[in-house]
Amino acid sequence: MTNPSHIIFLYLGMVLCVWGCSDSKDPNSCRGVSSIPLGFNSCLSIEHPSLPEAEKIKVENLITSGFRSINRLMDVDEVLIRVVSEPNLVVPEIGIGGFNPSSDEVIIAINEKYRNLADAIDQALVPVLAHELHHAKRRRSVGYGNSLLEAAVTEGLADHFAIEVTGIDPFPWSTALTGSDLDEWTNTASDTWNNPFYFHNSWFLGSDPSIPRWTGYAIGFDLVSSYLDANPDRRASSLHNETASSFEP
Questions:
Q1: Quick one: CA torsion of 11, 32, 130, 207, rounded to 10 degrees?
Q2: Residue-wise pLDDT tens digits, 99-151
Q3: Residue closest to 97 by CA, chosen among 114, 72, 74, 77
Q4: Which SS3 state, helix, strand or coil, does residue 114 take?
Q5: Is the Cβ–Cβ distance between 126 and 106 less than 8 Å?
Q6: CB-side exposure of 226: number of CA atoms within 13 Å?
Q7: Would you give the DSSP letter of residue 176?
Q8: Radius of gyration of the chain (CA)
Q9: Which of 2, 97, 142, 218 is most buried, most CB within 10 Å of its CB?
Q10: What's the CA gap between 134 and 111, in Å, rounded?
C-alpha cells in the first residue's frame, strides 16, 4: 500500500545500503550480509531484527517462490525486496504491510508480535509482495500517479494483480466500501479526481475523519473491476502501463 507522503519520514535516519544483483546463484551476487539472490537481477534483504528464525526461513522461501510466480505473469527485474520492522507500514488487520518507494525497491513490513504470525505470513506475504511489485513495474512507465484518480487506479490494479497471482479474496481495503456508499464516494471523488493536488492520507488511510478509511482503495478496486468486466481478455498483469483515464467511468 504505497503512501507517497511517507517517503521522507521513512528515510529520515534510515541508511540505504549500496547494493547490486545478478541472475547468478552465487551468494556474493547480492552485496550485504543478509542479501539473498532471487534471480531476475533481484535480491532479498531480510533486515527484521526481531523476526523469529522459523519465520525468517518461511519468509525467504515464500518470497523466493512468490517472486518467480509473479514474474511468470509480469516480468519485473532489478528490484531489491527488503523485509523490515516498520510499525507505520503494517496494516494492523493482517499483520503485514508494504511500501514501494521507487521503481527498483519494495519494502515489506512484518509485525512480529501479531497474534497469528505464521498464518499472517502464509496468507498475506505473497499477496502484499505482488501488490507492491505491481507498483514498481507501473512506476517504470506511467508512474504511481499525482492525482486521486491515478492513485486509485494504481492501487486497484495492484490489488487485482495480487488476486491474479495468488487467487486470494480481495484485501479488506479493496472492499471497504460497497453498494450505495461506494457509489456516493465515487461521485464525490470524481468532482476533483483529476486535480493533481489531493490529500493521499485522507482518501486512502483515513486521516480525515470525514472520509471513510480506505475509500481511495475501494474506489480504485471498483474502477479496475468494471474495466476487467468490460474487457475480459485483459488482466492486471498486462495493465501496468495503462493510463488511468482508461478506467474512468
A1: -20
A2: 999 999 999 999 999 999 999 999 999 999 999 999 999 999 999 999 999 99
A3: 114
A4: coil
A5: no
A6: 12
A7: S
A8: 18
A9: 218
A10: 23
